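Follow-up to my earlier ticket, as requested here are the two runs.
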Amino acid sequence: MDRRRMTAIGVLVAAAGLTAAVTLPSFAGEGPRRAAPAADGVAPEVLDALGRDLSLTRDQAVRRLRTERWAAGTVTRLRTELGADYGGSWLSADGATLTVAVADPAAEARVTAAGAVPKRVARGVAELDAVKTRLDAAGADAGPDIAGWYVDVASNSVVVLARPGAEAAGRRLAAAGGADGGTVRVRTADEAPRPLFDVRGGDAFFINNAGRCSVGFSVVGGFVTAGHCGRPGDRTTGSNRVAQGTFSASSFPGDDWAVVEVNGDWTPQGVVNDFNGGTVAVNGSTEAPVGASICRSGSTTGTRCGVVQAKNATVNYPEGTVTGLTRTNVCAEPGDSGGAWLSGDQAQGVTSGGSGDCTRGGVTFFQPVNEILQRNNLTLVTAGGQQAPAEPPAGGGQTAPPVSAPPAPPAADTECTGQVSRTGRITAGRAQVQPDGRFFRVAGGAQEACVAVPDGARVVVELQRFTGGAFRTVARAGGADGIARLTADTPAGAYRYRVVGLSGSGAYTLAFSAR
């Protein structure tokens, strides 16, 4: 292997916090449209949609969104602090009150001090998730009598949805999952979820010049959408029938996500189509709590709004079972699949499927976007053209154990050394979080890191600090054909590194301090 040359790199201190964005890519030859001016940080198109679907005045919508932003940050912090005693959280019907369930009465004071209302429950949300996981295994062949099941934190139980007259089938599923009667509730619901996919022409994008779906979120090099829309190798064209890209990854059933890599004629932009002649900028991907308002954009029915009803929902589609979805009361129709979901200005997920339509109403499920990004090492594109990573989902990366002893040392021809080292492979347009997708804690002071990359490759290394409910970039350094070095003087806290590929590909070594 050729010896890597050394390149001196300066450090850029980020002035802005973590952002994430969504988009429909511009057509070949068409420049990006400007997002409409926002009121109180929220685009007027979002306020209009909330007013229409939730019967809110503009002032009421602004106040609700402000409360929901506070609630999302508060829930992220309390979930980490409460650990196993955290029993879930939800907003009241008017969006004014945040309730946080706790399995230990000693934790109630902490919830009250945070400005939320505590509720004593028998089971923590981790226990409910474990029950649902057993139901996922037992219900792999649940049959058409069962529409699905999900964790309902407000009732501190797991709800099984049985079709009318099939309540006994729901009880049998609960028993097969080893759950007692107090943990699982069987509810009758006349729902028949199906993936929102059709073969009609229209806006958005086409798969193999036939099926139509909606673009979800713009990522470096392409976009994410629903998995049932296509399989790896399927080709896409835009709504203008211009060749667009290829499905590079897909998962359905089980999950419902896919990644499309676009060609050079398409430029991913950090906005989402408002289907009213403009675009809406997105400024983060903080996960909204149950009860929060949420809006969906799709190529069939445009923008529609409602509220989050439940998380960790399993849906029994005719094609197979999909787990880990978020349930809403927003309507959708065939062709809306893969479209973007926003809570205020925060990206949430891509449309999977649902029951009903936008004439009678119904329920719709989405695949959380942060899971898609993390599983595929993707990087979102922001409205300002900057790149932002996926935020850790609730209960995920924030609670990972700190870094301890490093693994095997890097190869002898690597010129990066440090207290901790990690290796990986990087390609253009992809990003990896280190160490091992988690984070580490430091007491404060100088931090140093370097990344050794193959000849011909270009990467950026970012140092991110967990603050305000999200990881935010505090320092950045780049290099080419050699070693990128980063130094930063930081306060105590939780940190992680991101290695972002700009060009080329190959193995890399990251070495850094973790004191």
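Run two:
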Amino acid sequence: MKKFKAAFLLLLIVAILQACSTANKATEKESGGESSSLADELIVLRASDATSLDPHFITDIPSANIVHGKVYETLVVFDKNRNLAPLLAKSWEPVDETTWVFELNEGIKFHDGADFNAEAVKATFDRLLDPATSSPQRDKLGMIEAVTVDGEYTVTMKLNQPYAGLLAILASQEGSILSPKAIQENAEGLKTHPVGTGPFIFNSWTSGQSISLTTNENYWGKKPSYSKLTFKIVPEDATRLAMVESGEAHISDQVPVTELDRIDNSSTMSLFRTEGLAVEYVGFNVTDSLLSDVKVRQAISYAIDREAIISGIYDNVGTLANSAMSPMVVGYSKNVKGYDYNVEQAKSLLKEAGIAEGTTVKLLTSDRKERINMAEVIQSQLKGIGLNVDIQVMEYGAYINEISSHKHQMFIGGWGNATGDGDYNQYNLFHTASQGPPGNHFFYSNPEVDKLIEAARGESDLDKRAGLYEEAMKIELDEAVYIPVRNYEHLAVYSNKVKNFWLDASNYTMIADVEITK
């Protein structure tokens, strides 16, 4: 009897343990297996707030970084090696030099329930290209004459001229496909409430504090491993770094170069570095009464020691730029040359221009630490040729507004080429049609340069195209429209709990495949 009771108790214990084990396995299955070991929220830190969340009105990479590839998707996409790959379009074909046919993926929904199809593509580009929309992106895609629907999932783009960079611009944030329902019902609302097909759905935007996205549970592609993505606005460099180091946040893609040793020596965070498509420069408002004289601009160009800025301010992160186009951009030329450091030549040109010693010029910069430091170095260097520099520091949004609205003299800027194509650089920075918000903050206009840029747009021979850009860039530098300083090297700091994070050459945070351990 005692043996029977003992055996019965043993069987009962085994049954209970098996039941517990089965329950645990069921719980693990319901929660996604290993997901219990993964964190549910990814926190990305930004130095400044977005200026808009509507791709047709976004003109800066930091704002685009919130929605591009996250809320919004494009017909085609750049892969990790900068090769073009299918996304919303499963295939495409150039019928002739000015006609492109795209076959679209089926069964995709926008976040508001609208269907993704050829009508949605047409609605997006019709809105962008409509002059009444007043989109600063319109000229970037102005070569598109018409978008026609040739079936529920077939769309044709007719161009008004051959355009070698079409697929590259369609892969950029300007090519984002918007919900036709949102366009029809509340197009203005897209500036603060984006609606796309991407892996993340917009949740909330608390101005100056944070932007929150949630994972799209019905996403047509690979769903992220976490359910919430939060962008927190933290202006202070040291605070952002401390938050990543302590585990309070996971990623910051705006890293002060003065903290590289600290990051390298940290046991909790790592540094990601990649060569970029962008160039940092000092720009001139060429219509300003003082700076409209090319001799004054040339004098300032000679007076700035660019190599000292790269070594002293940037600790040799990045390389000396010879033009506004980085070596990674299609159309770059090594034959274009910036101004050598020559104080005596600078003084001579100012004297020829009749500029009195002690004349003041205003230099505008955003509130990034390195740029403020650069402004102070420039202030010191220009004092050596008799110019006083009044440094103006603005929060990023206010800075963008200032240089877009023609209120500045000199400014420290950077052009983050989103496509890797020379047209995105030259047309947006130097063409007359791009003055103001689209990117020509120099307010430069030269009919000869316009013609060269337009000719390069339609040239399919890469060597001939590069030759056209080279000619245009030489004129821009001869006329001292800007001073090329540094080819970017993009930096990001991330927690060691984060896996599969990377930056692309445009400085977009690539986080869809990220996993965060607890």
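The only thing I checked on run two: The radius of gyration is 26 Å. Let me know what else you need.
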